């Protein structure tokens, strides 16, 4: 999510008092094996390869995996 959307969501949780009814869980960092249970090997390889400084090299994959813009 984009920072603005995260802030909006956080403010809604606070203003409606929903945070009082929530339990917060801190997830562990998923391993590549765990991620391939739900995502293709190609997608995981793409995520491991792309960086802000090389995004232009991955434009086709970004479009294929619908990565780059939050709706």
TrEMBL record:
One MF annotation (Gene Ontology) recorded for this entry: hydrolase activity
Name of the gene encoding the protein in the UniProt record: HDAC2
Keywords: Hydrolase
Record protein name field: Histone deacetylase 2
SUPFAM superfamilies: Arginase/deacetylase
Annotated ranges, domain Histone deacetylase: 1-58
Recorded superkingdom: Eukaryota
Pfam families for the chain: Hist_deacetyl
